[in-house]
Here is the input.
Amino acid sequence: MSNAIAVAGAGMHPWGKWGRNFVEYGVHAARAALADAGIAWSDVDLVVGGETVRNGYAGYVAGSTFAQALGWNGARIATSYAACATGAQAIDTARARILAGMSEVALVVGADTTPKGFLAPNAGERWNDPDWLRFRLLGMTNPAYFALYARRRMDLYGATSEDFAQVKVKNSRHGLENPNARYRKEVAVADVLGSAVVSDPLHLLDICATSDGAAAVVLTSLDYARRHGLADPVRVEAVSTVTPTFPNAVIDMPLLATDCTGASGEPEHTFKESIALAAYEEAGIAPSDVDVAEVYDLSTALELDWIEDLGLCKRGEAEVLLRAGDTTLGGRIPVNPSGGLACFGEAVPAQAIAQVCELTWQLRGQAGGRQVEGARVGITANQGLFGHGSAVLLAR
Here is the structure.
């Protein structure tokens, strides 16, 4: 049995630092997605909101908040939270109700207003919260973890700071063509290497910003899509929300150590590899079938990790693809044609949905100057704190 549903509409609010309420961004994205789908708000029977922990009670009940802001229409509601994987979990919640026959038209919205600087835990003392502990005990901000992963690539595979800088150069070039991107400026390798070192070996321009922004999708059953003249829609073929398995032999933010492998040995797959494998297995699609990928480039080095985690090349070969131009527009497997988080920054509940928006436009051939020619299959990759996997596989 196919688990496919249709992406009828996609919409975004441009990323930036706008200083306004997150609801305003979410309503903008939602209305854009509904207009793109040609579906009236009154026809939506389910609203799933991506929770934002920084925006008070309204953010904790985001499904209800967005439904009220759009004008109560009697729809069912749900709210999802999975840190940076929130958007994918919200999409999966909507998909489950559609496949169960309990919904025909779902609106999924994620929006955020972020503070300046590091994303940090909420205030208060919580000694059983690993996210709080890593700040309290070690002062380990997110970029400190990104740097550990970057150093690992350098030690294992011979990656260089110039390789990392080339990822930023590529993504900044892609972002020039994206009207929703926050940063639309070409960057040279020298600019990256000349920017301040944040956590060695990563420079300021290797690391993504924190942003305000929103994204939304309208999801429907394939039967509804057919009845309403949505011919050959982009389909969600799989959503992966897997958790790690013990032993977890690579440190996973926000933890301070790995699990011990002494009793059971190395696992067959790392957590990040298992995220993609679950999506490929569910969809019956192989990595070799993928035409375009949107991955979670919190840092330039992490993009290289994800290329391998998605099976787009063998372990340790991502730099080879990068240097050959395979991951840029016009290459064999373009990665982050949107510009990625390098050009957007993080708006936590929105970013996994934004990846789906980008791939929807790519598979429709509507991505303008950043279009991946002939794209028929795309995959997203994302990860949330505390073991939230996130991959969405789309096809047309």
User: Anything to note?
Assistant: The mean pLDDT is 96. The longest strand covers residues 5-16. The chain has 14 helices and twelve strands. Residues 291 and 375 are 5 Å apart (CA to CA).
